[in-house]
Amino acid sequence: MQPSPKQQEQAESGKGPRFIPFSPLFILPSTRSGFTVLLNQNDRLVLYAKGGDIFTEAHRQRLLEMGVERVYVRAEEKGFYEEYMRSHLGELLDDETIPPEDRAAAWYQTSIGITREIFQNRLSTPATGKRFAQIEGLVKDTSAYLADPKALKKIAAYIQRGFHLYDHALGVMVLTVSLLRTFPQADDELLFRVGMGAILHDIGKTTLPEYLLQKRSDLMTPEERRLFRTHPAAGIAVLAGMTLESETLHCILFHHEQSDGKGYPAGVASQELPLHARALILCNAYDNLTRATPDGPAKNPFEALTQIKADRERYDIECIKRLIMVLSNAEIA
């Protein structure tokens, strides 16, 4: 006897078979899966397509005609499913037959998985090259997705989730690309390079002891504070084996600088900071304020922007104005 779909969806707890539900609209014509697709019929899961089958438009259309809203993949084939989603994320985001809410969910599930792997594995395994290529693909796909003015509103609730480094990294990337898009000089190549820097800006923190990342900044000893402030330069060192453009490196190295010259590691003032770095500095601060950290609970968008305005000497004024506009248009603030 097969377990019911309700039991099957309890993929994170319990014993026995586990299954992952997903939208049949994610089955793209002319693509090949590495996983078995199961269909719920009379409260039982039955085979719909074998791993290795080539999906056709008929596959998807038949499911739609049957009114199927979810199909399933076995939990032990999760890796193949994730690989499929990563390989086809750009196509899924471009497919207007998929409801915007489903595209937003697909973006988040895929994005957070890729970003989590980068931060948890510290780019130090034999799979580093593959993971780095996936980050590049994610940034390109996300930047193209955010060209749709409605996209940020759809993913806003997702990027506010979590408190891990990878949650913050994803949020900062989305906000920075969205902010830079409002400047006419920001072409697709710049958005990609800066998006890479934004998602990797805190990678240097993976070299720090965990206790330090969980400690309130005002309780750090002078030595702990000095060590903590090495993370921008440490990020450059972590990525030394990767080919990165100067704009990407600027984002990693300068993300704690301030327009008044009182930031770190170098105390670089506004006139010496490129626009893309000033945009990232602001988005990094905003995301930190709206996310729970050891320094305090998350602020709501209004509270965070009020704090930023009070500290406006630290940030680029034009970037503040444009970030408010971006957040307002997405109904975030």
Briefly characterize the structure.
It contains 16 helices and four strands. The chain has 333 residues and is mainly α.
Overview of the molecule:
The protein is mainly α. It has helices spanning 5-8, 57-65, 78-87, 89-94, 100-121, 128-145, 151-159, 165-180, 188-199, 210-213, 222-228, 231-238, 246-254, 275-289, 301-310, 317-329, and strands spanning 19-22, 37-41, 44-49, 71-74. A hairpin with a 2-residue loop joins strand 2 (37-41) and strand 3 (44-49). Helix 5 (100-121) packs antiparallel against helix 6. One of its GO terms (molecular function) is hydrolase activity. InterPro entries: HD/PDEase_dom, HD_GYP_dom. This is Metal-dependent phosphohydrolase.
Write the layout of secondary structure elements.
Blueprint: H1 5-8, E1 19-22, E2 37-41, E3 44-49, H2 57-65, E4 71-74, H3 78-87, H4 89-94, H5 100-121, H6 128-145, H7 151-159, H8 165-180, H9 188-199, H10 210-213, H11 222-228, H12 231-238, H13 246-254, H14 275-289, H15 301-310, H16 317-329
Antiparallel strand pairs: 1-4, 2-3
Helix pairs in contact: 5-6, 5-7, 5-8, 6-9, 8-9, 8-14, 9-13, 12-13, 13-14, 14-15
